[in-house]
Design a protein that fits this description.
Helix 1 crosses helix 2. 41% of the residues are buried. By secondary structure, the chain is α/β, with parallel strands linked by helices. It has 21 helices and 20 strands. The protein starts with a helix and ends with a strand. It has three domains: 233 residues, Rossmann fold, CATH 3.40.50; 110 residues, Fumarase C, Chain B, domain 1 (Orthogonal Bundle), CATH 1.10.275.30; 193 residues, Rossmann fold (3-Layer(aba) Sandwich), CATH 3.40.50. The longest helix has 21 residues. The strands form four sheets. A seven-stranded parallel β-sheet has the order 3-4-2-5-10-1-11. Strands 14-15-13-18-19-12-20 form a seven-stranded parallel β-sheet, with helices on both faces. The chain has a four-stranded antiparallel β-sheet with strand order 6-9-8-7.
Amino acid sequence: MKLREWQEKLSEKVIQALRQNFLVALQAPTGSGKTIFALHVGFKVKERLIFVVRTHNQFFPVYRELKTYYSDKDLAFIIGKSSACLYTSEDVDPQDIYCNICSAYKGLTYKLTIKDPPSIFLNKLKEEGKSANFCPYYSLLDSVNYAHVIIMTYPYLFFPWLRDLLNIDFSKYIIVIDEAHNIDNISSIDEKRLSKRSLDQAISQARSNEARRILEKLKNTTSKLIHPDEKNILVSDISELRLSDDEIRILEDEYSDIRQEMIKSGKISKNYIGNILRFLYSIQDERIKVFSYSDSLVAKYIISSDFINILNDENLTFMLMSGTMPPLDYLKNIIGINRREIIYIDVEKAVKSKVSGSYECFISLDVTSAYALRSEEMAKKYASYLLKIFYNSSLHVMAVFPSYEFMNKVSRHLSNINYIKETPDTSIEEVMISIKDTKSLIMGIARGKLSEGVELVSNGRSLISDVIVAGIPFPPVDDYLKIRADAISKMLKKDISDELIRIQALISVKQSIGRAIRSPNDKATVWLLDKRFNSLWWKRELNCLNARKIKL
């Protein structure tokens, strides 16, 4: 295996840091070869590695590099119970699957050898599980015991109750956390939601009049507390949401009966009463606050320290990787990584040269996504920019918006072009099929599925020639952000509100740009469509000091 120049220059430094049990934070652009670098330095230090990724889509790059360069190493991957179960639909919560009475509640008695990409292998394993009556989920769990490389998603590392399920001695592994900028919001994965729709579904599932009465009462209370706004509004009094012990027991009995019936029937669908119960359990935790968000109630942790604390275990060896790694002070102060030894490496600064593809910047001076100025006239201007850029692009165009609301407002003024608009249910597979034969405008939202951690490539090259950042994606300054900023500021004894907002927006913009830079040979055009980008701070942070300024 021939290493790239930057990998050769920095290998020994990282290897020595890992051997001394430093936490290594590696900032390297997309397409620079972070995954193969992690495999290379990891195997120099320990015999086993764990890759922790945000989504199942990110399993494939690890599989690809391992099979290409370390084909003698055994691979295992851990996937959610609802994805691996023989009898579930995709929207089932793992807790709703009653494994103990399932006839397939056992793993394989022989070693799994993963030769296909994880998604293909899983489909084959499920087919084999149906015919031989074994559980793919527990078979995959068993396979971690003999694998040199394990791939898992964030919850299996950061959530203590899932981490304990694995029965892994993590001290024997180099633990590589990919897309590590996402750990800032790790607790959001464990959010619990309550909506009128989920309550209606739970009422239709309930068998007893008592359970239906309780759920109707809860629905009436919820209706009074929710708002349609796409921002977190604190619900200060949640006393009416709390049920009596007897009412909880009635719902638990209903939930248990439905779980058992589903597994016996061999067809497991979403158990909405379980969804309601998990929300009710969560609001008993004093660390949780309840917010209204887009016609739902959301129970959220304010501080992620209970999830992040594993990174502060001095007995474990971590390597954090991202093309948009937050600054070292942000990792320490805001995310809460406070172990004694941290080494932060910005690859391009360390080797004093670019290590991936390049891009040219344009900044528009006549549009802004500032909330108070999001008029129909402004939306039409944005649509005009999108059309003009699209017609002049060589490949697909990705446009990233601050919110669904603004994206929808602009898209109403688009016509006569093929465009794909992200929804909460959009899958990467759907996008790949849609863009296969026709040049397309791909519209997503900041911090969404399409703007982060997604590869749209062919033969190793990006399929995107132009990236449009349609407004600065500042996180909404809502009650959640204010409460979180206040809590962290009190701990640090200084105001971090501005830093929290700016760094999150910067990471989102860099992630968006990264969709077009997937290899060292990629070249892209980046359109920063907001006059607020025309500041020294933004131009410096985005490496756009020589950006050309444009108007319609």
